């Protein structure tokens, strides 16, 4: 059995990951309305990944005989006006999620819960990649977003992203 505080944080993270999926779906819808279908595709795939993160947390809790409680998912909170807005909000959000994962890791560390630390190692690495991806998108948009042809090519590049199941299996 996991310690109650660690299990509670993991349970809370299930909700945060589903919220992330909801937020990225909102970003995808924004870009659909803007006619940028590649950006929309990128965030739809991202939303699928976030759902996977939630499902991994659920499975880990259940593998450890912990009860999972699903809470209400908040409405996406960002105001999106400019094409850059989702990219910047997404980067901020990933930094926030990294802090949440580190917080759970820290609680597991304090409890000498090595199993949970090992489980979370994958998420620590994943967060590094997600922050890099989010930051790279901002840089690309800064460089190419004001030029129609370049924006078209960037949109095509993002449209090629395909969903892949997570590399972590439990
Ligand atoms: Fe589940 Fe984008 O972190």
Automatic annotation (TrEMBL):
InterPro entries: Ferritin, Ferritin-like, Ferritin-like_diiron, Ferritin-like_SF, Ferritin_DPS_dom, Ferritin_prok. Iron-storage protein. It is found in: Cytoplasm. Pfam families: Ferritin (PF00210). The keyword Iron applies. Its EC number is 1.16.3.2. It comes from the Bacteria. Gene3D superfamilies: 1.20.1260.10. It catalyses: 4 Fe(2+) + O2 + 6 H2O = 4 iron(III) oxide-hydroxide + 12 H(+). It is an enzyme of class 1 (oxidoreductase). This is Ferritin. CDD domains: Nonheme_Ferritin. Fe cation binds at residues 17, 50, 53, 94, 127. One of its GO terms (cellular component) is cytosol.
